[in-house]
Amino acid sequence: MRISVIGAGYVGLVSATCLAEMGNRVRCVERDAARVAQLSAGRLPIHEPGLEPLLRTQLGSGQLSFGCELAEAVADAEVIFIAVGTPAGEDGSADLGHVLQVARELGQSLAHNCLVVVKSTVPVGTCERVQESIRQQLSERGMALKVRVASNPEFLKEGSAVEDFMRPDRVIIGAADQASINLLRRLYAPFMRNHERILCMSLRAAEFSKYAANAFLAARISLINEMASLCARLDVDIEEVRRGIGSDRRIGTHFIYAGCGYGGSCFPKDVRALIRCAELEGMEPGILRAVEARNALQKTLLFQALREHFGGQLKGRLVAIWGLAFKPGTDDLREAPSLVLLEALLAAGARIQAHDPVANAAVAARYPQAIGEGRLRLCESPYETSEGADALVLVTEWKQFRQPDFARVRALMRTPALFDGRNIYDPQQLFELGFVYRAIGRPSLGVAAADAA
Ligand SMILES: NC(=O)c1ccc[n+]([C@@H]2O[C@H](COP(=O)([O-])OP(=O)(O)OC[C@H]3O[C@@H](n4cnc5c(N)ncnc54)[C@H](O)[C@@H]3O)[C@@H](O)[C@H]2O)c1
């Protein structure tokens, strides 16, 4: 099929590349010319495992190409995906500026019948607005075309985006007509080889499903985090509780890990957008507000624990941080818990040595002043961060951090205190190595000894 994808971010780029991999001819439109040049040269502007080799193969085969000109790229497309960003607006609602801009441009340039598919996460009713905008532009140009609009929200996860797109749990198609459904079924058929996972529904249900899914997942995280805070007060280890409840098939083991909060480009903004949507409908979204409030609190816990550990005096302390990306497998920093910690530590006068396997460059671009003043140093290895550190904080649970040589880390640190923001370490092992160990919702070990010293 001849496909166009508008937007070459995490979603657009992965979708375009995977669709090309299945034999479609894909033209990807991106307004950022530098990004287009980089992609056209086969270089990825983002970190996404497995994507670069596919990109290079598809560029080489001519199946995939990038450009800035929308009109040219959509000229003969049968299906046009809109995959531009929908960031949070000032009041929390989804900012539809980019989506509606693309709709206008499509209406101004289309000269053939085609299907426009909204892949961006958008509030209920947006596909109807896109349809209306295209129709209006076409009628102003005196064009009598049949341009249909469908919803196809994306569920890929950064860090495993290629795998998720190639083998999706489900593909949701929201459409008002059978022809659109048939076309999208045909497009997705190669991704459904072993069993059918396409779910068809109304446009509005498809739009809402994406928000509902993210709200559910965020709620599970905030609920286990609230349980963890209670566990900490009751001298109960949340990790034992997690195993205890995860074995219940009605609950399951996913998304019940206590930690220092969720971040990323989706959960925070989508929960906020749903809150705003409820407000506009005159409904009080009490649970969603609590999910968000708990997450905001959770992101501050590591700093609070550090402050308590140092008796309120963080000025001049050297803190090592492992992991900066909002989760393993990506270099995305959007709403990352690490940023809340970094900023609180810098404001308190602490010095930081941090390492992330792929996000160092993104952090360097954000904090040039702190780096210039020597208050933040980005290190090439986790061991380098430990040199002379008064405390070590694990924020993002990259595999590289799972089984470090703790004896070496301890020898490098000035004082061995470990704050485990993802509960991945064995408290007893660390205690025996002489560390003070604090985590999220687990009894602290070695704290009394450190206080006495
Ligand atoms: N990132 C994820 O994990 C994820 C997962 C599922 C759904 N989503 C949703 O998908 C959408 C895109 O997310 P993303 O993370 O890929 O965003 P992103 O910010 O990484 O990428 C969006 C891209 O679109 C480009 N763009 C904006 N306006 C344009 C225009 N008029 N013409 C051409 N290009 C334009 C931007 O320059 C940018 O490169 C959002 O609605 C998001 O909520 C994201």
UniProtKB/TrEMBL annotation:
InterPro entries linked: 6-PGluconate_DH-like_C_sf (IPR008927), NAD(P)-bd_dom_sf (IPR036291), UDP-Glc/GDP-Man (IPR017476), UDP-Glc/GDP-Man_DH_C (IPR014027), UDP-Glc/GDP-Man_DH_C_sf (IPR036220), UDP-Glc/GDP-Man_DH_dimer (IPR014026), UDP-Glc/GDP-Man_DH_N (IPR001732), UDPglc_DH_bac (IPR028357)
Pfam families given in the database record: UDPG_MGDP_dh, UDPG_MGDP_dh_C, UDPG_MGDP_dh_N
Coiled-coil ranges (or none): none
Domain UDP-glucose/GDP-mannose dehydrogenase C-terminal intervals: 320-427
Keyword terms of this UniProt record: NAD, Oxidoreductase
List of residues binding NAD(+): R35, T86, T121, E158, K269, R334
Catalytic reactions on record: UDP-alpha-D-glucose + 2 NAD(+) + H2O = UDP-alpha-D-glucuronate + 2 NADH + 3 H(+)
GO molecular function ontology, one term from the record: NAD binding
Superkingdom, taxonomy of origin: Bacteria
Active site: C266
GO terms for biological process, alphabetical: polysaccharide biosynthetic process; UDP-glucuronate biosynthetic process
The EC number(s) this enzyme carries: 1.1.1.22
Pathway in which this enzyme or protein is active: Nucleotide-sugar biosynthesis; UDP-alpha-D-glucuronate biosynthesis; UDP-alpha-D-glucuronate from UDP-alpha-D-glucose: step 1/1
Binding residues annotated for substrate, in chain numbering: F155, L156, K157, E158, K210, F255, I256, Y257, A258, G259, G263, K327
Family in the record: Belongs to the UDP-glucose/GDP-mannose dehydrogenase family.
Protein name as it appears in the record: UDP-glucose 6-dehydrogenase
Organism: Pseudomonas mangrovi
Lineage: Bacteria, Pseudomonadati, Pseudomonadota, Gammaproteobacteria, Pseudomonadales
